[in-house]
# Entry
Amino acid sequence: MDTSTPSSRRQFLKLSGLAGATTILPSAQVGAALVEESKLSSGRAKNLIFLMVDGLCNGTLGLGHHWKLRNENASLNWIKLFERQGVRRGFQDTASANSPVTDSAAAASAWGSGERVNNGRINTDSSGHDLKPLFSYAKEAGKATGLVTTCRITHATPAGFSANVSHRDMEDAIARQYLEREIDVLLGGGARHFKQVQKDGSVTDYLSLFKAKGYEVATDASALTAVNGRSRMLGLFSDSHIPYAIDRKNDPSHKNIPGLSEMFRAALSRLDGSKDGFVLQVEGGRVDHAGHANDPGAILHEFLEFDDCIPIALEHIEQNPDTMLIITTDHGTGGCQLDGAGEAYLDSGPALDRINYLKHSFEWIEEHYRKNGQFSPAPVKEALGIESTLAQASIVQAALDAEVEYLSGALNRAFGQQLNKQTAVGWSSTGHTSECVELFAFGPGSESLPAFFKNCDLFSIMTDALGLRV
Ligand SMILES: [Zn+2]
# Structure
């Protein structure tokens, strides 16, 4: 921590007369004093925690808010942020370079490089030039870097702070860049991109390459929490994305897969105490996926899991006031809403209780059917509490026969109306939305956050706060 900060701040307050409010300054002088204070504040953040949820619609927040009040008689941690001391809030325009509706690659690149890029790109502009990402600047300043996500670690959002590729699907290349750029902590899914088949048919085992660079490697929750070392760490807990929170909760076969909170704590314990500070991005990645799938049970539990990470971050900044904390989302997904249901909307409350009958995600159902290519009623009954009709069964079977990429579309055609009636959760589409989104900032540098800003404006707010030479 910069020990000169408190005394220089005291000195400033004394000089400006703001400390005891005993001297009344002319307004021009007060303005100058405030500018001076903001200068003093900038560059004082040793660390940055960037905590984000992918694809959080305002309507998903409303759904979570009312579910939490009704079921647990408590407020979401997200809602409590509005009343917290020292919070700065901004409303964020989330567009990309080529559309009012961003994808996660362009959104993370806007934050990560300060420039809007086209959808699908990771820190490369439309002429193919690389834009230097935030983590490269942080590394130059000696800071440790970390990425945590419930998606594949090579997915768009973590890559947006640390990689350069012309398309987000180049996940093998992203894994290779993580190794070359020595991102210190990598925790998430995506093991499939760390054993790469080369053109000549040989397989490059990235796990051993990471180990050779001094990384500890973990593949389950016990290994993640067992070691409390300070070394670099690569933790890959699933071949693709980490299973949804609702499935980890209700399927015992997932019990050794860590959740977002466990990964967040493990990353903090490794990065905390880094001599020149750290920059850590933590992504609740799958609210977005549940939004694309229009899956009400999955989206609620995924957001609640993210919400549980907020106190971990707040506790950290209380003990480390030299840390800037940002909490936000990159765009909305699915247009999720708790709709008015029943006469005078009196069924919307009970509908919230009926979300509790949902025990598994569509993805969990899909995995059962993929195994033998056949529909059977049991998984739908277990996951959604629904007895399938022949018509519903044939919709799902037709999708299985057609070998579609995801079954969520067929599951929605078959069961969506029934689920909407049961839960009152409605959707505007299976894509992203253009909505502006909330951002909370705490700690040094947060005073520079405007009330309304573009996603790409955040880059200089973060680099100024960290005193990075850009
Ligand atoms: Zn998405």
User: Anything to note?
Assistant: Residues 47-336+430-466 form a domain with the Alkaline Phosphatase, subunit A fold (CATH 3.40.720.10).
